[in-house]
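Give me C-alpha cells for this 142-residue protein.
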Amino acid sequence: MLRVLPIIFAVALIIYTFIDCARTDSSAMPAKISKPLWLILIALVPVLGALIWLYFKYQHIFTSDYPSPSFGGQNPFSRPQPPKGPVAPDDDPEFLARLEARNRRRAYEERMREEGLLPEEDERLDDKHDEDRDEGGLYGNR
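Here you go.
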C-alpha cells in the first residue's frame, strides 16, 4: 500500500493541474505562457509540469500584500503593518477637536454666567438635552 500511495498522489496531482489549467481563462495564464503550451508541459513532464503550474499559478500567496486567513489576515512572511486609523480615542483627531470645542463652549458659557449674561445652569430648559447624554458620554452611544 505504501508503494502505491505516491503513484496515486502523482496521478491525482496531474489530473487536478490538467483540469485546472484547461478551465483557467486564456487571459489569466500565469508566466505569460499560452494555454496549449501549459497543457503540453503538464502532460509530457507529468509531476514536474504539474508542480511548475501550481508554483506559477499560486505564487501570489507568498507576496507581502496577500491576506492569509489562517494568520489573522496577515502574511507570516511580511513585517507587521501599523494600524491604518486611530486605535484609541485620544489618538483620533476628530475626537480631540470635538473635545476641545466642547471645553471651549463650556468655558465660554461659564464666563457668560459669571458676567450675568446667561441664566444659571439650573434655570436652563428641561427639554434641552445635555450634549454628553446625547453622545453617550466619553465613549459614544453604546
